[in-house]
Write a structure and sequence with these properties.
By secondary structure, this protein is of the alpha/beta class. It folds into 2 domains: about 5-45 and about 55-65 and about 95-155 and about 245-325, FAD/NAD(P)-binding domain; about 155-245 and about 330-344, 2-Layer Sandwich (D-Amino Acid Oxidase, Chain A, domain 2), CATH 3.30.9.30. The chain is built from 12 helices and 14 strands. The structure holds flavin-adenine dinucleotide.
Length: about 350
């Protein structure tokens, strides 16, 4: 099955779907509201399934070449004592968001993406055999698929993230009361950091502190590796955002319209899976359409293959968001995480 495909959103899911569908002979047009590829961004973990999906489209080696191998992650208390370690048998890679976008775009989609093209009204889109909503957590296309307004759910936590110059070898997450601080390599010269803090803890700090002052107040007295990163954070480059995930809404498909990635199953960042799931959706979508006689059959097969998996990852990510930022029972929380890490 092939024809004309419209994709809304040139994020990770949209670019990957564009690449996969073009490789199968679809004529692809992508509408993207921004004016070009992202110029800044932090690191994304590409798990083995995501690496396999990237390999299927011939770009896995580019990610390996420009990313950093991730062997696992160590979980620490604020005093620096480890309480759990997750190791992956198959290699995962950390790659910066701008690099991943560029790899997915280059050599395949230069004549397919319309930049500065906001889709405010999905009914105004030209006729096409297939419409793919890859327009992220506040998706307009999801409203079309669900048949109603679908707002994301607040998680009650706020993310802070950024990069500082330097190198680290390992991925660490330090969990304290109501908050966590993560440090990962991003490339050969850059350290990626992120923090996740409960709303109620931030409210207790009042509204007068700047993001940099908040980070110092919340994490500046933690173990040396965290404190060092906090002192080097550039106040102008802190990305601070409240976190949301997607409420379930039924099928990912209506007629010839389908949603993928965050548009379908935006999740808390705590499992580091959102971008990976977007990549998997894109590859499964192309596979399902290739194997079917009609778009309707292909989209139904895609929904069967991906709806449950996406929703399950939303639930796991929500659980980890709560667990990692719990304010009470932190000792038993560390034991729970240790047990989960041994199962992983
Ligand atoms: C703090 C944080 C840390 C994270 N860390 C990780 C990680 O380590 N690993 C991981 O796998 N995931 C991670 N994620 C999740 C990951 O960023 C997302 O899951 C991923 O970006 C989803 O890709 P997407 O293509 O579905 O959506 P997006 O990347 O959001 O792309 C959507 C695109 O659609 C465009 N768009 C939106 N609306 C319109 C419109 N109306 N018209 C035209 N264009 C439109 C947007 O401009 C954007 O380019 C993290 C997320 C956060 C918030």
């Amino acid at each position: 099955m092939k024809g004309d495909a419209i994709i809304v959103g040139a994020g990770i899911g949209g670019l990957m779907a564009g690449r996969a569908l073009r490789a199968d002979g679809w004529r692809v047009t992508i509408y993207e509201r921004t004016d070009g590829l992202p110029r800044t961004g932090t690191a994304l973990g590409m798990w083995p399934e995501a690496m396999a999906a990237l390999d299927r489209l011939g770009v896995g080696d580019a990610v390996r070449a420009r990313g950093v191998l991730q062997q696992g992650a160590t979980f620490l208390r604020p005093d620096g004592v480890p309480f759990a370690r997750v190791t992956s048998t198959d290699p995962a890679y950390l790659v910066s968001r701008p690099t991943l976008h560029e790899i997915l775009y280059s050599g395949a989609l230069e004549d397919s993406v319309g930049w500065d093209a906001v889709v405010d009204d999905p009914t105004s889109l030209p006729d096409a055999d297939l419409v793919v909503g890859a327009d992220g957590i506040n998706s307009r296309i999801r409203d079309v698929v669900a048949g109603r307004r679908t707002a994301p759910r607040p998680l009650g936590t706020v993310a802070f993230r950024g990069v500082v110059p330097g190198t680290v070898d390992d991925v660490t997450e330090t969990w304290g009361e109501g908050r966590l601080f993560g440090i990962t390599p991003q490339d050969q010269q850059t350290i990626n950091w992120f923090a996740c803090v409960r709303d109620d803890l931030l409210a207790e700090r009042g509204s007068t502190l700047t993001p940099a002052e908040l980070l110092t107040d919340l994490f500046g007295h933690w173990h040396q590796a965290v404190a060092e990163v906090v002192t080097r954070v550039d106040p102008e480059q802190i990305d601070q955002r409240p976190l949301y995930d997607a409420a379930p809404f039924g099928s990912m498909v209506r007629g010839h319209t389908v949603v993928i990635g965050d548009a379908a199953h935006a999740m808390a960042p705590n499992a580091g899976r959102g971008a990976c799931e977007a990549l998997l959706d894109a590859v499964h979508l192309a596979d399902a359409l290739r194997a079917s006689e009609t778009v309707d059959d292909g989209l139904r097969a895609f929904d069967r293959a991906r709806r449950r998996a996406g929703r399950r990852t939303v639930r796991i990510s929500r659980f980890l968001n709560r667990l990692s930022t719990a304010r009470r029972f932190t000792t038993s929380r560390h034991r729970t995480m240790n047990a989960l890490a041994r199962l992983a």
